[in-house]
Amino acid sequence: MARYTGPTCRLCRRLGEKLTLKGEKCSSPRCPLEKRNAPPGGRRKTRRRISDRAVQLQQKQKIRFSYGVLEKQFRRFFVKAMRAPGITAENLLILMERRLDNVVYRLGFADSRSQARQIVRHGHILVNEHRVDIPSYLVESGDVIIWRGGSTRTKYYKGLVEQIKGKTPPNWLSLDEERMTGNVLALPSKDDIDSKFDGKAVVEYYSR
User: Can you point out the beta strands (E) in the chain?
Assistant: First the structure.
């Protein structure tokens, strides 16, 4: 599976905004954006005016980088959102939220989406008692997300049992801390989407 393997923190510096790609590091003083809040590369002496097209591109990249999706796959999600009934911008963000790796992250089973993607790819997660190792798998209302039996004996899982206490998932998900089980109560709505994402700008970008 193709994925971005470059320096992650440069993505945040490029957009000038924290995308929480490195989990706890992003909220600590070790975050590179705290030390050097400037785009990578040489510094310009004069500022250039950012065009509308550039703003749209930045918004698209922000969503794509945050969810860890490459351009080709992101475009497929956009086409699917465009064909679905309703508002394309909202449909796109809801589809991204429904990705299994994102759900694993939202439940608190991982510190970042990239770590959640690795957990899914290694086959540690079951959906409705079936092993699913596809990070882009879209969950449905009523799905139950649990850990594979063999994975509960790992050092990571045992540490997670202690760390996850007190974590609160989004309203459309529920978490049983004792059983380490997640439930999809309903599909996410537009109110559950992070306000920093501008889906409308993505629609405008692809409409040209």
Answer: 125-127, 130-131, 144-147, 173-176, 181-184
Residues 135 and 179 in one domain: yes
**What is the chain's pLDDT, residue by residue, as a tens digit (208 residues)?**
455 555 565 565 555 665 665 555 545 555 555 556 656 655 655 566 778 888 889 889 889 988 989 999 999 999 999 999 999 999 999 999 999 999 999 999 999 899 999 999 999 999 999 999 999 999 999 999 999 999 999 999 999 999 998 888 999 999 999 999 999 999 999 888 877 888 999 999 998 7
- Residues 76, 121: one domain? no
Q: Report how far residue 123's alpha carbon sits from residue 132's, in angstroms, rounded to the nearest whole number.
A: 7
Which structural domain, as residue segments, surrounds residue 12?
Answer: 8-41+48-96+195-207
Tokens read off for 199: 């889906």
Under 8 Å CB-to-CB from 107, ≥6 apart: which residues?
A: 145, 169, 173, 175, 182
* Angle subtended at Cα 20 by Cα 14 and Cα 22, rounded to the nearest 5 degrees: 95
| Nearby residues of 114 by Cβ (< 8 Å), 6 or more positions away | 8, 21, 68
Residue whose C-alpha is closest to residue 206's, from 70, 11, 73, 53: 53
Sheet holding 181-184, edge to edge: 130-131, 125-127, 144-147, 181-184, 173-176
Indicate the number of domains in the chain. Answer: 2
